[in-house]
Specification:
Elements lengths: L4 H21 L7 H10 L1 H5 L3 E2 L10 H13 L10 H20 L7 E6 L2 H11 L7 E5 L4 H4 L1 H7 L3 E5 L1 E2 L4 E2 L1 H10 L6 E6 L12 H8 L3 E5 L18 E5 L1 H4 L6 E6 H6 L10 E4 L7 E3 L17 H13 L1 H21 L9 E4 L10 E6 L9 H10 L2 E2 L1 E3 L4 H7 L4 H5 L11 H12 L5 E5 L6 H12 L12
Parallel strand pairs: 1-15, 3-4, 3-7, 7-8, 8-9
Antiparallel strand pairs: 2-10, 5-6, 9-10, 11-12, 13-14, 14-17, 16-17
Helix pairs in contact: 4-13, 5-13, 6-8, 14-19
């Protein structure tokens, strides 16, 4: 049934009241009003098409001006493969190096200390570290339960090299790492051996922001530090003049939407020089010969890690995107999403069925203390049964609300959040020769235990506004007093 004029007026009045209350409680939000102007000018398609985008941790959104600037550059220039010295190659090389310099500048990284290796994405950056880090029998790979699978995957290289792999668990209910355990492991390992400590600056599951101070602590103990900044960098300032990890992995599409095929490994020059690549390719060597086994010279710095030809036509879009994000102001984005997420957390915590039962179970911190604008949760029915997560996503989609469900490639947080034991997970790996999908595993565990190892995630970013979060809460309120079995399609 289409909405009546009276229901539309009621909703408008509710929205106006909620907005007034929100801006009163978060006066700093008004200082970000220029982002509304940017949204109307550069992202107008969102509101014209009625989209509520709440999946910024999955992928950022690009502004129309970014696409025009990139198009204009390509339409007016002639660019060739940069591995030469002809005019078109030199023009392409200049654009690539301009992008490299823009990345260093954005993260306040001195070119004397840091180098930039362009990759396809953060996962590509992490693979470079995994395959080239000198893991050995007397070394250690220390990592947290709270990590993306691309960081977890580095453990396979560590094991192959004979290194010890140590996981530090997160603790329920906030899903934070135990700092005493972090310090214990950092101080316990023997010095003089190749040791790598990996953790995310911000969890892509719970939004927890782990202390950046651990970087200096670990390096003081002789560790090299891998910081996953993929979920952190889009809404938080990472200043590499102050925080100095050995390696930083990130994806540019998560920061500003476009291009989607570019990421980077920011590496301290001395740390990059300590890596040992297991192979070479075109572009990574200064010289090779087929007449002698092992005859090749790896190129120094980033050139030794950028396999083949870099995306020389796509990388100018990185320069444009970083400029765009700087013009909007990352600090303003941070202020804005922190206010919006604080309102969301408060509203979700108060949401109740008529019988007083909570409608939401949050995973992770319930306030904005040391967390970002990524929120993981369940929706619960009046008997505290979990609404089917995928069905919730489908129903949201019908209203053009984009949310994400699953484990978000972060099994450690998911296993702790949902109380999944090691023995329960083992059932998903009982028959190695039979491939088991995530959905298969979730069903297996749910059937055996009644636990629901699936999650809903909403996340805010560059041009989020109050209307986005208010509309989501209006959607969530629509589940009030509905039985979980009654929402199936």
């Amino acid at each position: 049934m289409p909405p009546t004029s009276s229901s539309i007026r009621f909703q408008s009045e509710r929205y106006a009241e909620a907005l007034a209350s929100f801006t009163s409680a978060h006066p700093d939000y008004s200082a970000t009003a220029h982002i509304d102007t940017c949204r109307a000018r550069d992202y107008g398609r969102l509101d014209v098409q009625g989209h509520t985008y709440l999946d910024y941790t999955g992928g950022g959104l690009y502004g129309e001006s970014q696409i025009r600037a990139h198009h204009d550059l390509l339409a007016t220039g002639v660019f060739g493969n940069p591995h030469s010295h002809n005019p078109t190659s030199l023009a392409a090389t200049e654009l690539v190096e301009e992008a490299r310099a823009a990345v260093l500048d954005f993260f306040h990284a001195s070119p004397d200390d840091y180098d930039v290796v362009f990759t396809l994405n953060a996962s590509g950056a992490l693979k470079l570290i995994g395959e080239a880090f000198p893991f050995a029998a007397d070394g250690t790979y220390l990592l947290s339960f709270d990590n993306h699978n691309s960081v977890n995957g580095v453990r396979e290289y560590a094991r192959r090299g004979g290194a010890q792999v140590i996981y530090v668990p997160v603790r329920d209910p906030d899903l934070r790492l135990d700092e005493r355990l972090i310090r214990h492991h950092l101080q316990a390992a023997a010095r003089g051996h190749a040791r790598l400590f990996a953790y995310p600056a911000q969890s892509n599951f719970s939004g927890v922001q782990h202390p950046l101070e651990w970087v200096a602590l670990a390096r003081a103990e002789g560790w090299q530090v891998l910081l996953d900044a993929a979920a952190f960098a889009p809404t938080n300032r990472l200043d590499l003049a102050e925080v100095q990890p050995d390696f930083v992995a990130l994806s540019f599409y998560k920061m500003f939407g476009y291009p989607t095929g570019a990421g980077a490994l920011l590496a301290r020059r001395e740390a990059l020089a300590s890596l040992r690549r297991p192979w070479f390719s075109g572009g990574t060597i200064t010289l090779a010969s087929v007449q002698g086994a092992g005859w090749h010279h790896l190129a120094p710095g980033h050139a030794g890690f950028e396999d083949g030809t870099v995306d020389y036509l796509g990388l100018p879009a990185v320069t444009i995107g970083l400029r765009h994000l700087a013009d909007v102001s990352l600090d303003a984005v941070h202020t804005r999403v922190a206010a919006l997420a604080a309102w969301l957390l408060g509203e979700m915590s108060m949401l109740r069925h008529s019988n007083g039962a909570p409608m939401v179970r949050l995973f992770g911190p319930k306030t904005m203390d040391r967390r970002g604008a990524t929120i993981a949760f369940y929706l619960l029915d009046p008997s505290s049964a979990v609404y089917d997560v995928q069905r919730v996503e489908e129903l949201a989609g019908l209203e053009r609300i984009s949310i994400r469900t699953g484990c978000f490639c972060n099994p450690g947080d998911g296993e702790v959040a949902h109380g999944i034991s090691r023995d329960e997970m083992a059932e998903c790996f009982a028959e190695p020769e039979i491939p088991v999908t995530l959905l298969d595993c979730q069903r297996l565990i749910q059937d055996a235990t009644g636990k629901v190892p699936n999650t809903i995630r909403i996340s805010l970013g560059l041009v989020s506004n109050f209307a986005d979060v208010w509309r989501f809460m209006a959607f969530a309120e629509g589940f009030r007093d509905r039985d979980a079995a009654g929402i199936t399609g």
